[in-house]
Amino acid sequence: MSKNMGSNVMTKEIYLAGGCFWGLEKYLAGVKGVTSTEVGYANGKTPDPTYQEVCLDYTGYAETVFVEYDSDKISLAFLLGLYFDVINPVSVNRQGPDTGSQYRTGIYYVDEEDKPIIEENIKKLQTHYKDPIAIEVGPLVNYYKAEEYHQKYLDKNPGGYCHISWEQINKVKTKTVE
Q1: Annotated catalytic sites, by residue?
Q2: Is this prediction's pTM over 0.90?
């Protein structure tokens, strides 16, 4: 879905699940062209889940980062490449030491035009792995914003846990579209 944010800025959105959402949010928030990030729970089966319910592994939700970006500055393909750099795309229900279905990888789109871009990039990614890519791809079915204490967690808690290295988080700030 594209939104006109005034000043002729067109933004698009994508929802990315990549393990614990604290580190992925911090990483994606540093990307030039990303205008907004938020952590939440996507594509589950219960209404208005809490973090505790999601952690119990019965709600079906994935810890997910909502990403709004300026499509005139960065492309979805560029954003996906950065996402692929910080996940293990062949791991099922696990990223780093975190295990459970809430830590699965996933790309959830709201714009049907994004689907072929996502599929093409997954296909390219597969050429680098012998095991099958385990990233769930599909339309966003539902999304609930996580509790406020999870929002910008690593800004509030700089010593907090993160399976994405601080080197990667800091390095992404200097990446530009090639």
Answers
A1: 20
A2: yes
